[in-house]
From TrEMBL:
SUPFAM superfamilies: Tricorn protease domain 2
Protein name, UniProt field: Elongator complex protein 1
Matching Pfam families: A-sol_ELP1 (PF23925), Beta-prop_ELP1_1st (PF04762), Beta-prop_ELP1_2nd (PF23797), HB_ELP1 (PF23936), TPR_ELP1 (PF23878)
Domain of life: Eukaryota
Native species: Coprinellus micaceus
UniProtKB keywords: Coiled coil, Cytoplasm, Elongation factor, Nucleus, Protein biosynthesis, tRNA processing
Domain ELP1 three-helical bundle residue range list: 1088-1258
Domain ELP1 alpha-solenoid, residue spans: 730-794, 802-908
One GO BP: tRNA wobble base 5-methoxycarbonylmethyl-2-thiouridinylation
């Protein structure tokens, strides 16, 4: 759907030099064009001048530098070729040698140095027979020549011969096909004619075209791997000479020969991409192609010499007496240029292909061409030469699309194909190219065409009006036409367009310039007044011309012409007053000549989004050749929206663009404008923040935007192969839906969401309060039951809160009930069912109400609700409403087997009311409700209720039901028994007390060792003293087993009066002060020597044993940590278990037991890829439990040792506290006890110092560049958790384990020991 648009021209005249230009060549390093001019003198020699033409930077030259001659030489002229054949066969700049090579037809190979001024001309060699054709390979490493003695010579850039062979070899080549006869004439059935017909020789005459110039042609493939030679074969037995193509490789070895093609001409060009070799063929004469007379095709060959497609060059464009001179492919292989010589001048046709159709995109009319070529690197840059001028034309791809706005946007797109403009309105039709909805034939009138040398001429540019649905076509000579298109917007029969020509004329004097772009604007709503603006330039002028023509009712009212400040400007599409862009990218207004803004580079594609209320918020967007998408508002800086864009359009409220990353993005215009009007730092930061919020949609590779149609919410894309795809991006859809909701057009919005799979919650989320107010309007517009049901169902599945869902459903249900319950019963049922939680009971109640008022529709309603809800579930809900008639109605329509439910219903009917409901609720597993009904069934059912409570553990519900009744205590006792069985002893005891069961409460207190509550309750209930003593003995034994020695001593002392047993318990609990107090209080001094003194020595021995154990552990772990840290530094791979990248795919686990290998990472056991990939859930949990176990040799060991040291510090603090209590008593006891106390204090002090030094050393951090410990993994899966563990193991363990504090103080010491 794209067209070739002429964007710039350059003209270099050589009138003053009496030149005769014949060839051009580019120096890509210096951006210089070289040209040769030749003239024959009277001596039969040819005089050659070498001209240097400086090239532009951008679309305009900064300084106009005239061409200058850098060298001149004379060579022998060849007289064997036609007069029109130039004497310069090849002109090439050899970049590596920094010299120009000129191959002359007379046989000379001339070179001229580029870097040296006035360098002498050197003749590297001469071929006496002359040179017929020459071609350099694209990388300039080889040169192929066809000489006059029919030899093919392969040479180096220094003209050393590599190979020499005849131009007409007899063999086919290395790629000769093997013919097994399949499908040939010899293998076919010939009926009564028999075998003789198969063996009869065929007599097909194959000759060349009468236009053939008999000169061979050579063309290289773009990758320089092959070249093809087209030569005229010798005369055959029938007197014909035919053109033959031969393909050679880089070593000049023949690969293949083409099949015989009648009428094949001399033209030849191999497509740079390599898939096609282009030639031309004439038909309709003896020896020519088999076809109608006058047919003339461009034909294609493959590398193997076989034909592969063709297209007609449309000879009807020319009058009789024409021939095709040359073919040239553009450097990107997209455009084929055809040079046609006619009786009155030359024409260059530019052809492109898409969807297997060839389009004639452009025609260039030149009085007399001498050469033409494409730029070798810059795509779509064409260089033409006449005898006295060099014309350079710059093209680019442009889509001619209608800028019409909603609601009248047609989505019209025009495609040029010869004299036809192919129109397709994408609002109503998506017609794949090369077809179209309508073909507009844009031709000159008969009077104007008769004065030209050709009957038909191509349009150079097409533009659409924003209002009025019209099209303007502009020809390069200034001729223009305006057509009223009358595009059908809505569906229906008839043509897509009904065109009417409104005006035809010229935008200016025919001799004043060459025109390349037009713009059309309607000045009134009736479509009768128009303004056509045309942009062009004169060949030698330094400024562009802008012509405007005012038309009223088909007549020219006023015509004006303006000079623009520079050459090669560009009109900004669909702007009035006219905006134009200079070659530097500046955007200017025509009338007041002020600069609106500027793009950093020239942007061929530029569009505007006008804000009529505030012109300062008008948005201008442009796409440069670099792929950068720019945007600015008047008076503000330009911002880059993307750096990899390949197409864009402004669709109503969005800037949509595609990227080379195969994405399409959508930027809200209002949001973008608000950012662009901000100041520099704030705007840049805001733009970066919002880019991630832009809607992104993946598209097919290479997709480009054709047109956007806001009214149909569509964006049309074209794929690289030419086919079209219409998508409906969510932003465009939501824009239309939002506008419809604002206008209260709920029906259109609903169907748009339904068609494009938009969540129907959008109808409510737009404005919930407004929707609730307009519920009657919503129901009035969307009156179909199925659509209402769909809305309620989808709305309930959305992200709304249950309260919102209930509110909307109730509002719609109320409105439907007003309109008629009978008609909308299904929707009313849906409104009940989709709530969260569903209100099934209310839905079934609706059926009961409907059964009384309209029994005729009940059956369908029941079937519908069964469709919404599972039949079994609905049966249970109806049963839970205790209405047997409703149950039977649901069961019958659900097609349940009567044998399944009738016996149960009959049994229920025989029971009394509450017991019947109890059975129903129990059947439905509504246990609490069943218990409530059972409690109402009478006191005689209480024992059954107790069993029911115990069966389903309904204790809390039972307490609420029987509260303040005579049976309450019995329920509490049952509850207490249940708590006792669950070992919730404190709560069980409280329950037993509430139930007046003190004995059970005492048992619970005793089991839980709550001895204070136990004895308090025992005394309150006058328990005998002997029983209390027995109870005290049992409790003390249990406390002693739990190492609660001090509490055991209290129980023995207070409730059993066992002084000795109490003192022993106190000593075991290290409560020596309490033991001495009790023994002295109760006058038992013998206990001091018998129990307390020996007990103190036992405690001292236990503390010493603990200190020695802690000391040994500290030293071992300290040494191990040092060893691990040295290993981590010296052997990190072995420590962390880093795998060799080369061996990642090797499975280290086998069926045979094996020693640990390099694959051992975190355990000493071998692991494998295969085993780890098949882990079960159990093995995964086991692996997680192993993490952090601290097994020796694993990376977790250091962390485990640090945590162990932390626990050791806490253990030492406890031992020190025990020593603090024991030391005073050892000192007071004197003698051996004092000596032991002194030793214990010294041991504790020494170990305290050692432990502090260990902690200081271990927790000293080294600068080892550990991993940041703050990094976390968000995903909570087993693989993610294991990955997090693996990452965390690289973290320094010191970051995981906090350093413990060893508080060194003297408060626990006894200073008298040291005196």
């Amino acid at each position: 759907m794209r067209n070739l648009s002429l964007i710039a021209t350059e003209y270099d005249s050589f009138d003053y030099a009496n030149a005769h230009l014949t060839a051009t060549a580019f120096d890509l390093d210096e951006n210089v064009l070289y040209a040769t001019s030749e003239r024959k003198n009277l001596d039969g020699e040819v005089e050659v001048e070498l001209w240097k033409v400086m090239q532009r930077k951008g679309l305009n030259r900064d300084v106009q530098t005239p061409p200058n001659v850098i060298s001149m030489f004379t060579s022998m002229a060849s007289s064997n070729e036609p007069d029109e054949a130039p004497q310069v066969v090849s002109l090439r700049v050899v970049a590596e040698e920094r010299r120009i090579a000129v191959i002359m037809r007379g046989g000379d190979a001339v070179v001229v140095s580029i870097d040296e001024e006035d360098s002498p001309v050197e003749v590297e060699g001469t071929f006496e027979s002359g040179i017929l054709a020459a071609s350099w390979c694209p990388d300039e490493s080889l040169l192929v020549l066809a000489t006059g003695d029919q030899k093919l010579i392969l040479m180096t850039p220094t003209f050393d011969v590599l190979s020499e062979s005849p131009v007409h070899p007899n063999e086919f080549g290395e790629d000769a096909p093997i013919n097994v006869g399949w499908g040939s004439k010899q293998t076919q059935f010939h009926g009564s004619l028999g075998k003789s017909a198969a063996q009869a020789p065929t007599n097909v005459k194959v000759g060349c075209s009468p236009d053939d110039d008999s000169i061979p042609r050579i063309s290289w493939r773009g990758d320089a791997a092959y070249f093809v030679v087209s030569s005229l074969a010798p005369v055959d037995s029938q007197g014909f000479r035919k053109r033959v193509l031969r393909v050679y490789d880089r070593q000049a070895a023949l690969q293949s020969t083409s099949e015989a093609v009648g009428g094949l001409e001399h033209t030849l060009c191999w497509r740079p991409s390599g898939n096609l070799i282009a030639c031309t063929q004439r038909f309709g004469f003896e020896g020519g192609g088999l076809g109608r007379e006058g047919r003339h095709d461009v034909v294609f060959f493959e590398r193997n010499g076989l034909r592969h497609g063709e297209f007609s060059i449309r000879p009807e464009h020319f009058r009789k007496g024409y021939r095709v001179r040359e073919l040239v492919w553009s450097s990107d292989s997209n455009v084929l240029a055809v040079w046609v010589e006619t009786e009155v001048g030359d024409v260059v046709q530019l052809w492109t292909t898409g969807n297997y159709h060839w389009y004639l995109k452009h025609e260039i009319v030149v009085p007399k061409l001498t050469s033409f070529q494409w730029h070798p690197e810059s795509t779509l840059h064409l260089i033409l030469t006449t005898q006295d001028a060099i014309m350079q034309r710059y093209y680019d791809w442009e889509t001619y699309s209608s800028p019409s706005k909603p609601p009248n946007d047609t989505g019209l797109v025009g495609v040029l194909d010869g004299s036809n403009i192919l129109l397709t309105p994408f609002r109503t039709q998506n017609v794949p190219p090369p077809m179209s909805s309508y073909q507009l034939s844009a031709k000159y009138t008969a009077e104007q065409a008769s004065s030209l040398g050709y009957d038909v001429k191509n349009v150079v540019h097409v533009t659409f009006s924003e209002e009025g649905d019209a099209l303007a076509a502009l020809w390069e000579d200034g001729h223009a036409q305006i057509w009223q298109l009358n595009t059908r917007i809505g569906p229906g029969p008839g043509k897509a367009n009904t065109t009417t020509q409104v005006w035809e004329g010229r935008v200016s004097d025919p001799a004043s310039g060459q025109w390349r772009q037009a713009s059309l604007h309607s000045t009134d709503a009736s479509g009768r007044s128009w303004v056509v603006s045309a942009l062009g330039s004169t060949p030698t002028g330094s400024k562009d011309l802008l012509a405007t023509v005012n038309i009223d009712q088909g007549r020219t009212v006023r015509a004006e012409s303006f000079d623009l400040p520079a050459r090669n400007c560009r009109l900004v599409d669909s702007t009035y007053p006219v905006l134009y862009q200079t070659p530097a990218g500046a955007i200017r207004r025509l009338e007041i000549e002020d600069q609106v803004g500027s793009f950093p580079e020239f942007c061929l594609h530029a569009q505007t989004s006008r804000n009529k209320e505030d012109p300062s918020k008008t948005l201008l967007v442009g796409l440069g050749r670099s792929g950068k998408l720019y945007a600015f508002t008047p008076g503000q800086d330009t911002r880059i929206l993307a750096t990899n864009a390949n197409s864009f359009t402004i669709s109503s409220s969005f800037v949509a663009f595609t990227t080379t990353a195969h994405d399409s993005k959508y930027i809200p215009v209002s949001e973008l404008v608000e950012i662009l009007i901000l100041e520099e730092p704030e705007a840049e930061a805001k733009l970066k923040d919002v880019q991630d919020k832009w809607t992104v949609r993946k598209v097919e590779r290479g997709s480009r935007i054709v047109v956007a149609v806001p009214s149909t919410m569509s964006l049309v894309l074209q794929m690289p192969r030419g086919n079209l795809e219409t998508i409906n991006p969510r932003p465009l859809v939501m824009e239309v839906v939002t506008n419809d909701l604002k206008e209260g057009n709920y029906r259109k919005a609903f169907f748009s969401c339904r068609k494009h799979r938009i969540d129907l919650n959008a109808l409510v989320d737009h404005d919930q309060e407004d929707f609730l107010r307009r519920v009657p309007q919503f129901v009035e517009q969307i009156h179909e039951v199925d659509h209402l049901n769909l809305f309620l169902t989808m709305f309930a599945r959305g992200s709304q809160s249950p309260e919102t869902i209930a509110k909307i459903c109730d509002a719609i249900r109320d409105e439907l009930e007003k309109k008629g319950r009978k008609k909308y019963i299904n929707t009313i049922l849906t409104a009940h069912v989709v709530k969260d939680p569903p209100d099934y009971e209310s839905g079934l109640a609706e059926l009961l109400t409907l059964r009384e008022s309209d029994p005729s529709v009940v059956e369908e309603a029941v079937k519908y609700i069964i469709f919404l809800v599972d039949a079994e579930r609905l049966f249970n809900i109806a049963l839970g409403m205790y209405d047997f008639s409703l149950v039977l109605m649901v069961a019958q329509h659900a097609q349940k087997d009567p044998r399944e439910y009738l016996p149960f219903l009959k049994e229920l009917r025989t029971l009394d009311k509450f017991y019947q409901r109890f059975r129903i609720d129990d059947h439905l597993k509504r246990y609490e409700k069943a218990l409530k009904n059972l409690s109402l069934a009478g006191p005689e059912r209480f024992s059954e209720a107790i069993q029911y409570i115990e069966r389903y553990q309904l204790y809390e519900a039972a307490l609420n039901i029987w509260k303040d009744t005579d049976q309450y205590k019995a329920v509490v006792e049952v509850y207490g028994d249940w708590l006792y069985e669950r070992r919730e002893l404190p709560q069980a005891a409280t329950a037993f007390i509430e139930a007046s069961k003190p004995r059970k409460a005492m048992v619970a207190f005793e089991k839980n060792l709550q001895w204070r509550e136990l004895f308090d309750l025992a005394f309150l209930n006058d328990v005998p003293e002997e029983e209390v003593k027995d109870m005290a003995y049992r409790v003390s034994e249990d406390l002693h087993s739990k190492k609660r020695y001090i509490e055991a001593g209290q129980v023995l002392l207070e409730y059993r009066k066992d002084i000795r047993g109490a003192v022993i318990a106190f000593v075991q609990g290290n409560a020596f002060s309490e033991a001495r107090r009790v023994s002295n209080l109760h006058r038992h001094p013998e206990l001091l020597d018998e129990v307390i003194r020996p007990g103190s020595l036992d405690s001292r021995a236990q503390i010493a044993e603990d200190i020695n154990e802690m000391k040994e552990q500290t030293r071992k772990q300290r040494n191990r940590i040092q060893e691990l840290r040295v290993r981590k530094v010296e052997e990190p791979d072995a420590f962390y278990g880093t795998e060799d990248v080369v061996m990642q795919n090797i499975d280290a686990m086998t069926d045979v037991s094996m020693a640990p290998t390099a694959f051992t990472r975190y355990t000493v056991a071998p692991t494998s890829v295969s085993r780890s990939s098949k882990k079960s859930s159990r093995s995964k949990r086991k692996a997680e439990r192993k993490i952090g176990s601290g097994r020796k040799g694993t990376v977790d060991e250091e962390e485990y040792l640090l945590r162990s040291l932390t626990k050791l510090v806490d253990r030492f603090a406890g031992a020190r506290e025990e020593a603090k209590n024991l030391l005073p008593h050892l000192y007071e006891f004197g003698g051996e006890h004092r000596k032991e106390g002194l030793e214990m204090q010294s041991e504790l002090t020494a170990f305290e110092q050692e432990l502090k030094e260990t902690i200081e050393e271990v927790w000293t951090r080294s600068a080892d560049g550990e991993v940041d410990p703050t990094t976390a993994t968000a995903e909570d899966t087993w693989a993610a958790r294991m990955a997090e563990v693996e990452r965390s193991r690289r973290i320094n363990p010191l970051d995981k384990v906090s350093r413990p504090d060893v508080i060194r103080g003297d408060k626990w010491r006894i200073n008298l020991y040291e005196l």
